[in-house]
Design brief:
single chain; 224 residues; alpha+beta; SH3 type barrels; five-stranded antiparallel sheet; 14% strand; flat
Length: 224
């Protein structure tokens, strides 16, 4: 009988009090609220700051008499972006015509005669054509490879198969692999790897970039 009473007393002592359970639930709700609202709030905050910055930049280059803010009693966020988009559409319409193509070709000929400017222009043109072209993706495969030595694995993105002089010099199927840095994937280095020495992953390029940007914290979902 005494043993049962002692056991019952221990069980009662082990159970958390009502206040402790209440505080535990409040803590859970608080962290859940942060997880839900923080990404949304930060996304809208960054987008708002970007819109305000573009508006200020567009107002600086547009003459004062053509600014919408001068004729409106209040500021409208996003007008700068609308103006820039409209100008880019107009430029696109102009350059697709005969006269516009003539001026584009003339400008490219002038740029090609400049020693340093021509190299920078050609590089940027190729990059933008690759990114904005619907025919070919910038990266088409996520791979694992051992780099810089055996036993150390890094995540890489395959841009294309190695062609040209480099492809001819190597007697095997070789891939152009971009290895990004963390947490900034826009910087990194290009390496040429034999296709037989990489492990192709099923994750998407977007999931691979999330993994790199988050420093490995955000792992992609399991492949179904």
């Amino acid at each position: 009988m005494k043993k049962k009473k002692k056991q019952l007393k221990k069980n009662i002592e082990k159970k958390p009090s009502i206040v402790a359970r209440f505080l535990g639930k409040i803590k859970t709700y608080l962290f859940t609220g942060i997880l839900v609202t923080a990404p949304v709030g930060m996304t809208f905050y960054i987008a708002f700051k970007l819109i305000v910055y573009i508006d200020k930049w567009s107002n600086a280059i547009v003459p004062e008499k053509f600014r919408f803010s001068e004729y409106l009693p209040f500021e409208v966020p996003g007008l700068g972006i609308a103006v820039i988009v409209a100008v880019l559409i107009f430029i696109g319409m102009f350059t697709t015509g005969y006269v516009g193509r003539f001026f584009v070709r003339l400008g490219e000929k002038i740029l090609s005669k400049m020693p340093f400017i021509s190299s920078v222009y050609n590089l940027l043109k190729q990059v933008f054509e690759t990114f904005f072209s619907g025919k070919k993706q910038s990266f088409n495969q996520v791979v694992l490879l051992e780099y810089p030595r055996k036993g150390i694995w890094v995540l890489g993105f395959v841009s294309s198969k190695t062609d040209g002089e480099i492809g001819k010099k190597i007697d095997d199927k070789v891939l152009n692999v971009f290895v990004p840095t963390t947490p900034n994937p826009t910087s990194g280095f290009l390496i040429f790897v034999k296709e037989s020495e990489v492990i192709k992953l099923k994750m998407s390029v977007e999931d691979g970039l999330k993994l790199v940007i988050s420093c490995g914290i955000v792992t992609p979902d399991k492949v179904k």
